[in-house]
Amino acid sequence: MFLISSDRLQVSNTHQWRATKTEAKIEVQQNFLIDYLPWIMEKLNKFEVVHIPLVSNLPLEASREKRILSAQSIQSLLCIPMVSGDELIGLVGSEYIHALIDNLFCSYGDRESQIKPIIHVEAIALNLETAIPCGLLINELVTNSLKHAFPNNKSGEICIELYQDQQEKVYFTIKDNGIGIPPGFDWQNSSSLGLKLVQIISKQLKAEINFDSCKGTVVNLRFYPLNYKSRF
């Protein structure tokens, strides 16, 4: 979370939520001059959410932001304005997928030392309409693995993979090396609310999806980014 100074000249990171093994960045994210972030601040001052799916693809007018974010190895960013009355007072920023996974593992703090996340996510540009359903899928499928894949305090790994081919098709896999799917389990007819949500979201993405149980559970999805027309 970033707050704007009382003189409205600087913005600083005041709070950071992260997994215990994730690098802390709060100390190096202090006293940014607002003039260094003109493109982002212009949008936030209009109370707009700023979604940067790929920092390397920022436009020329965002060259300052591109330089600052790249220097901190940030590949993608979601900024949500914080407003009091009719005034912008700060923003909540997130490196979307990594932050989501960190938060999920933090919520299972007693297992964090036993279950290791492995993240292989390429720097690909997903529009907001596609990125949000992907985040929901990660939430449901990783949560399912954390809850069920490693009973009796068993240790293991959960791997998240995301990449895109030259035809822009997205390949998305979540797998674990836990106990696997029970024999005869039909995930499409499961009473689990989480798996029902996975079905709904995969249909929204028009995704091919399959579950496999080989040395754990593997969920593979294949889809193209959604292409919504402008609503305005």
UniProtKB/TrEMBL annotation:
Signal sequence interval, chain numbering: none
Keywords on record: ATP-binding, Kinase, Nucleotide-binding, Phosphoprotein, Transferase
Family matches, as SMART domains: HATPase_c
Enzyme class, first EC level, given as a word: transferase
GO molecular function: ATP binding; protein histidine kinase activity
Domain Histidine kinase/HSP90-like ATPase per the UniProt entry, residue ranges: 129-227
Reaction it catalyzes: ATP + protein L-histidine = ADP + protein N-phospho-L-histidine
Pfam family, one: HATPase_c
InterPro entries, A to Z: HATPase_C_sf, HATPase_dom
UniProt-listed Enzyme Commission number(s): 2.7.13.3
Domain of life: Bacteria
Record's protein name: histidine kinase
